[in-house]
Amino acid sequence: MFHQPDLFDTVRSDRSMPPSALDLPEIIERIAGVSSRPRYAFMVLNLIAKAARRTNGKAGPYVVQDDRRIPLRDWLSDSLVPMAQRDARRRSIVDEVRTRLAADDALPADKAEAARIIDLEVRERVRRSGRCNVSRAVSDLVRAGLVRRHYQGFRVDHHNRGAQREAVYTITDVAAAALAANS
Q1: CB 155 within 8 A of CB 164
Q2: SS3 state of residue 149
Q3: C-alpha to C-alpha distance for 130 and 147, rounded to whole angstroms
Q4: Domain edges within the chain
Q5: What does each of the 183 residues of the chain score in pLDDT, given as a tens digit?
Q6: C-alpha span between 155 and 158 (Å, rounded)
Q7: 99 vs 94: CA distance, rounded Å
Q8: How far apart are CA 171 and CA 142, in angstroms?
Q9: Residues in contact with 71: Cβ distance below 8 Å, sequence separation at least 6, in sequence order
Q10: How many helices (H) and strands (E) does the chain have?
């Protein structure tokens, strides 16, 4: 019978080693085997591991930072924003936002306030695209067998994964052990 691999199938390894024997280079090799952006996926894995250390291997649905509960994907996206600070695409987003706000006559005369408004809009756009990038990277990590994903929140039994639910990522023991040995 024909089998089409699902986006969330895990990679099956031909190795006869027990899963606990994986080390960091093997983790990277696994990620590189399933991801078109392995460095980004590895950074996401490290951040998930950092968030999961406090909660018995599970990260999400919220991360507490400065006494605020932040949805996990927003926290991951915000944590990776410094990687895009010098990106030409980000600079073009700033120019696009400034032009649109100026055309709508929504920029105040005060330059500091105008810069703040532009920064908030750019941050929202970057966060939105960052959430998508994080989801793609987590899908790669799920396929690599390093992370499990489920959702918590309102309408848990809803057929659509959305419905006001937030992602929870559980790092596997193999990935946790490999990352802990190198931290």
Answers
A1: yes
A2: strand
A3: 19
A4: 19-181
A5: 444 455 555 555 444 444 456 888 999 999 999 999 999 999 999 999 999 987 788 998 989 889 999 999 999 998 988 776 666 777 888 889 889 988 988 888 888 998 999 988 888 888 888 888 999 999 999 999 999 998 887 655 555 555 567 889 999 998 998 888 776
A6: 5
A7: 9
A8: 9
A9: 60, 61, 62, 63, 166, 167
A10: 6, 5
**Closest of 146, 133, 137 to residue 29, by C-alpha:** 146
CB 149 within 8 A of CB 158: no
The C-alpha atoms of residue 97 and residue 122 are separated, in whole angstroms, by 7
Q: 111-143 vs 24-34: helix axis angle to the nearest 10? A: 100
Joined together, the tokens standing for residue 135 give: 């989801």
